[in-house]
Amino acid sequence: ELFPSAAGSTLERELLRAARDRVPVEFENYYDPWRRWFFVKAYPSADGGLSMFYEDITSRKEAVEALRQSEERFRGVFESSGVGVAILKLNGGFLQANQAFSRIVGYSEDELRQMDCAALTQPDDWAKMSGLVQSLISGKIPDFVVEQRHFTKGGRTIWVCNSISSMRDGRGRPEYLIVLCEDITARKQAEISIKSAEERFRAIVETTPECVKVVA
Q1: Each residue of 111-138: pLDDT tens digit?
Q2: Would you say residue 2 has pLDDT above 60?
Q3: Which residues contact 106 (CB under 8 A, 6 or more apart)?
Q4: Which of 3, 24, 75, 92 could form a disulfide with 43 if both were Cys (CB 3.0 to 4.6 A apart)?
Q5: Residue 205 β-bridge partners
Q6: 3-class secondary structure, 85
Q7: 215 by DSSP, 3-state: which?
Q8: pTM of the full predicted structure?
Q9: Euclidean distance between the first and final Cα of the chain, in Å?
Q10: What is the reported pLDDT for 31?
Q11: Which helix (H) or strand (E) segment is 213 a member of?
Q12: Which residues does 176 contact at the CB level (< 8 Å), separation at least 6?
């Protein structure tokens, strides 16, 4: 007996239906004692019985379950990350964005799905980034990091540091882009303030007629 103790199982119900209604049935059935999944086909035969075909699909089912668990783990990291994370189409359109990314730019995930990255990026910075993206897609570079200006929904211009890589399929073909985004506006403002102070000091030194001596 191929499936002993199958009473009350999907197998028994479907085979009874095939025999009673004289219709072909196809279904998946898990047999616990063997810990195996089978794809079962049953067809009414001319002698009043059933023709049965079985395919062991345990490996496929395990692969699907492993993928599901992997996606759940990725979703957990994706949503809980303190760093902005966005998944882009190869043309720059948004597929997904986590809450941290939405907080940085001020747009909800649904709003971002109607946009592309170019709409958020200062035009000069986008020209530089798009060239790097093409090099990434073509495989010339594995990833890149770029500092650029983004526009927020509220109209502010902020500085961000974007780390961008590509995800590829089993044949090595690019499927989409992953962006890790960090708001560095405070740091850039501090750098600009320091640079401005240095330039003012240099101007004073260079334009003062008296001799200026700096002692370390």
Answers
A1: 999 999 999 999 999 999 999 999 999 9
A2: no
A3: 152, 153, 154
A4: 24
A5: none
A6: strand
A7: coil
A8: 0.59
A9: 94
A10: 76
A11: none
A12: 87, 88, 89, 90, 95, 166, 167
